[in-house]
Amino acid sequence: MGERLTLEEWRRAKNISQEKIADVCGVHVNTYRIWEKSPGEIRIDNAIKIADFLNISLDDIILSANTTQRSKAETKEVTP
Hints:
By secondary structure, this protein is mostly helical.
């Protein structure tokens, strides 16, 4: 299985600003920034808008939540 991208990585790969996606969803850019850090917080209607706008599947949005969670856990690991 290939490596999963985070929501931020998907957005950057498409060269789209946070402001533009926030506008598409009708939310403040700060709300969208929170979603990039915690994609599990995105309501399904907004996840569908983001997936459609980025031309990715809804599964990619859902799996980005898992990828983000895993990245956060790896960052917290302390090496002796």
